[in-house]
Specification:
The chain is built from no helices and seven strands. It is mostly beta strands and 85 residues long.
């Protein structure tokens, strides 16, 4: 299975987290849980995470996620101008 990043196809594997992590928004609000991730097979890096909410599951690029001080929690970060388009 592939994932396109900056126009380049990458081979990825999808993994389910054993413990869901919380994802917080730009203002610290809880958005939902990260339940799955996509790993680049060449580098072993996480390239996307799956945010699961009550209504939907959305895949978010790892460039938009940062670690949080709270255990088992991630923080959404603002897109850089080059990321948004």
């Amino acid at each position: 299975m592939g994932y396109t990043n900056s126009g380049h196809e990458q081979a990825v594997a999808y993994a389910q987290l054993t413990i869901p992590w919380k994802l917080r928004g730009l203002l610290g609000q809880e958005l939902g849980e990260v339940t799955h991730c996509a790993l680049d097979l060449a580098s072993g890096r996480i390239v996307q995470v799956a945010l699961t909410t009550e209504w939907q599951t959305v895949w978010i690029p790892s460039s938009r996620i940062a670690s949080s001080e709270e255990p088992c929690s991630l923080q959404l970060v603002a897109a850089h101008r080059s990321d948004s388009g």
